[in-house]
Each structure stands twice: as C-alpha cells, then as structure tokens.
Write a structure and sequence with these properties.
- By secondary structure, the protein is an alpha+beta fold.
- It has a domain at 18-48.
- 12% of the residues lie in helices and 17% in strands.
- The protein has 1 helix and 6 strands, in the order αββββββ.
- A two-stranded antiparallel sheet has the order 1-2.
- Strand 3 (51-53) and strand 4 (60-62) form a beta hairpin.
- The termini are far apart.
Length: 104
C-alpha cells in the first residue's frame, strides 16, 4: 500500500503543471477562467473594455470614461437636441437619427 501510494505521488510530481490562467471581474473581483464570457459570481460581462485616445493628450483611456484621467479633458461629445423632434444626437452629427432633419 505504501509503495503504491509513493509511486502515484512521484508520478504526479513529475507531470508538468500549468497554472490556470484567470481573469478578474471588474464588477465583483471574482476570478474566472480565461475564455469565460460572463462572471460566474455576478454575471457581468468579462469582455475587455474598449479604449479610446484622448483628443487633447492622446492618452489611452476606457471608452466608458467621461473625462481623461491624464489631463482632465472631456471625452464624451456634447449632445444636441433636434429642433424638429427633440431627439438627442452627438455633436457633429449632420442629420437627426430619428427624423432626418438637418442639424447644422
């Protein structure tokens, strides 16, 4: 019995072990295996957050941020109201996405 147990343990120690790669959920901090699309603890998406460049200092910041973490510049474009239907459109948009009215 002792010999069999010792042999089994020796075989397991000789096998190369690769550490499991994990990703940390930004919502709850739980660890999940790489390749998992949603957190097994809270259900939040584990997809990487898209990045954008700050128009002022060119720093790379998360697309969900409103201000640049490096220089403080505003990242989200201003919204304008359509004079015809009142729908909001990003600044610089030429036509309303709801009714087609020319905005500029």
């Amino acid at each position: 019995m002792g010999l069999a147990m010792g042999t089994t343990m020796a075989e397991q120690m000789r096998r190369p072990t690769t550490p499991e790669r994990l990703v940390v959920c930004q919502g709850c901090g739980a660890t999940n295996p790489i390749g998992t699309k949603f957190c097994g603890n809270c259900g939040k998406s584990l997809a990487p957050v898209p990045k954008v460049k700050c128009p002022k200092c060119k720093a790379e910041v998360e697309a969900t941020m409103k201000f640049c973490g490096s220089c403080g510049a505003k990242l989200k474009p201003e919204e304008i109201d359509c004079p015809k239907c009142g729908a909001k459109s990003p600044a610089g948009t030429k036509f309303c996405g709801e009714c087609g009215k020319k905005l500029q």
